[in-house]
Design brief:
Helices cover about 30% and strands about 25% of the residues. It is of the alpha/beta class. The chain has a seven-stranded mixed beta sheet, sandwiched between helices. Strands 8-9-10 form a three-stranded antiparallel beta sheet. It has two domains: about 100 residues, Formyl transferase, N-terminal domain (Rossmann fold, 3-Layer(aba) Sandwich); about 90 residues, Rossmann fold (3-Layer(aba) Sandwich), CATH 3.40.50.170. Helix 1 runs parallel beside helix 6. This is Phosphoribosylglycinamide formyltransferase.
Length: about 220
């Protein structure tokens, strides 16, 4: 089966990007990264990609008069690279509905909470302040609304009584690094179907089915 060609959009250090790079480097993984694109030329994730021999692009949003024109340039770069799927990995730009529509059901995002809880920024701080016993991470298909869309994989992470946001972030990040490659594998293998806001994996609801365990 032909490998799914993926563009990864980043804005920073690219730790989730690295988990995808490592997964794609294994011979049996059903996807390959054909482009890493950042809106920041100094993003360390671009260095990670270059070290792995993956083509990179930096397109600064500051050089465009509006979000639509920036998103159009990003879309054109993705198409030129031959990608037919997009993964957002710490891309700190709100995408326009037009861009999201072009990649409907062909774009994943990862968020450091158990969505729909704690959408947006500072999710770890907010989970601790709310007295939650658990938080986690979510890989979902992207919709026009922020941090919204059908959920492919989630993992729960306990919140300890003495946790700082940095402590919690580190543990959640370990789960993220497992969940994102798993979600991409499921999609690339053609095992995912979407019914409204529900994702089915092999015809079974995901991620509620206990046989689908992102933490191995």
């Amino acid at each position: 089966m032909e490998r799914l060609k993926v563009a990864v959009l980043i804005s920073g250090r690219g730790s989730n990007l690295q988990s995808l790079i490592d997964a794609c480097a294994t011979p049996d993984f059903p996807a390959e990264i054909v482009l890493v694109l950042s809106n920041k030329a100094d993003a360390y994730g671009l260095t990670r990609a270059e070290q792995a021999g993956i083509p990179t692009r930096a397109i600064s949003h500051k050089g465009f008069p509006d979000r639509d024109s920036f998103d159009a340039a990003v879309h054109d770069a993705i198409i030129a690279a031959g990608a037919n799927f997009v993964c957002l990995a710490g891309f700190m730009r709100l995408l326009t509905p037009g861009f999201v529509g072009k990649w409907h059901d062909r774009m994943l995002n990862i968020h450091p909470s158990l969505l729909p809880a704690f959408k947006g920024l500072h999710s770890h701080e907010r989970a601790i302040e709310a007295g939650c016993r658990f938080t986690g991470c979510t890989v979902h298909f992207v919709r026009a609304e922020m941090d919204d869309g059908p959920i492919v994989v989630q993992a729960a992470v306990p919140i300890h009584q003495d946790d700082t946001p940095d402590d919690l972030s580190a543990r959640v990040l370990e789960a993220e690094h497992r969940c994102y490659p798993l979600a991409l594998r499921l999609v690339a293998e053609g095992r995912v179907t979407i019914e409204g806001m529900r994702v089915l994996v092999d015809g079974i609801a995901s991620p509620a089915d206990p046989t689908i365990n992102p933490l191995g």
